[in-house]
Amino acid sequence: MDPYAALRYKEFNIFLLVRFAMVFAWSMQFIVIEWQVYSMTKDPLSLGIIGLMEVIPAVSMALFAGHIVDQKEKRNLLIKCILGFSVISFGLFMLSWPSMEDKLETKTILYGIYFLVFLGGIVRSFLGPTIFSLIALIVPKKIYPNAATWSSTTWQLASVLGPALAGFSISWIGVHWSMCLIFGFSIMALISLFQISTKPILNPKIGEPVFESLREGLRFVFSTKAVFGALTLDMIAVLFGGAVALLPIFAQDILHVGSEGFGVLRAAPAVGAALTMLGSTRFPLHKNAGKKLLFAVFGFGLCMIVFGLSTYFWLSVIALFLSGAVDGVSMIIRQTILQLKTPDNMRGRVASVNSMFVGSSNELGAFESGVTAKLMGTVTAVVFGGAMTLITVGATAIVSPSFRKLDLQKDIDEHEANE
């Protein structure tokens, strides 16, 4: 199979640029917010609250957002999402203005940050399903797996550079001007998106009642074992196994490496995932996908335990790097399953359920990590999460033999035959 098949479509390349700029801006913004909030409060629970403020609207709005995405034109909807993010990033830029910090109490600034993060959760509930649906309208079905791999790779590369630059920019230009840089990237994404043409709406049920539409989407996800199994496994692993929300504590209080070391730690998982994804363009992962996904999540749990116990900076970096490498396998397989198994008229709703299961579990995981760190201590919380991930994988392997046998090659062959 041609490893560059999707890149031969001009609009797909523009799409990758838009996705890179948005993920870069979003991931950088989240890191800058984490650093600022923990510097203001010195309270691990405050980091968990950041995640909670984003996950509440992201989960509560997700299904409704999926319905809207399936009913509307995708390019213009994505423009509105990016405009919303730009307004939020500009608000954070203004809120972090030094003169503003002199005029307002710390608590007021903190609540303002939480409010803008909450609005960001609303935007994100629409952003993910819109991006997922737009990919399928830019490239033909036979190269969905290749497009999903390049899209995920772009996501990870942006996730590498965004957090890394966040750590350095905090040190070099401060929180305020880091927020200005984030706003600039969102504007770049907005301008680039206008080079993609509007796309047809493939849903034959325009005007379908909301609740009937939502029931149909949920029914599809829960009745399709491959989709439901992949989402459930990844959700629980991310919920319990993610230590990313606690990285400011490790950087400042355990490893003592400052904001630049924090940037390295935050970028390490994404570096590992990006390398995995680049390799997968030449060595596809669709054969024996079930077993590969189980091994990948098990490896992720082990890496989290090593990271939690480490007191050496470079050992911590290596553990996070390897966690990203195996997580990259998980992400590619999950995205390929969703692209191959989802009908065109239901992509928005299925992607919304995916965001509830997986995307929002990152923020719930951040809240869980903050609470357990408060109750157990930071190191114990990370080790506990890794152990829960291992238990989850073992249980899934035992109770779902059909998932262990999952192989996506047949689906790919069917799409190629239909082209």
The helix content is over 70%
- Largest sheet, if any? none
Query: Tally the helices: what do you get?
Result: 17
- Give the amount of beta strand, in percent: under 5%
Structural class: mainly alpha
Radius of gyration: 20 Å
**Spatial shape:** globular
- Number of E strands: 0
How are helices and strands ordered from N to C? HHHHHHHHHHHHHHHHH
Distance between the termini: 15 Å
Mean pLDDT: 81
Poorly predicted runs are none
Q: Could you list some keywords that capture this structure?
A:
17 helices, globular, mainly alpha
Give me the secondary-structure topology.
Blueprint: H1 10-41, H2 44-71, H3 74-95, H4 98-103, H5 106-138, H6 144-172, H7 174-193, H8 210-223, H9 225-241, H10 247-254, H11 258-280, H12 289-309, H13 313-341, H14 347-376, H15 378-399, H16 401-404, H17 409-418
Helix pairs in contact: 1-2, 1-5, 1-6, 1-7, 2-5, 2-14, 3-5, 3-7, 5-14, 6-7, 6-11, 6-13, 9-12, 9-13, 9-14, 9-15, 10-11, 11-13, 12-13, 12-15, 14-15
Provide structural commentary.
The structure is a single chain. It is built from 17 helices and no strands. 83% of the residues lie in helices and 0% in strands. Helix 6 packs antiparallel against helix 13 (313-341), helix 12 (289-309) runs antiparallel to helix 13 (313-341) and helix 12 runs antiparallel to helix 15 (378-399). It has helices at residues 10-41, 44-71, 74-95, 98-103, 106-138, 144-172, 174-193, 210-223, 225-241, 247-254, 258-280, 289-309, 313-341, 347-376, 378-399, 401-404, 409-418. The protein is globular, with a radius of gyration of 20 Å. The model has no long low-confidence stretch (mean pLDDT 81).
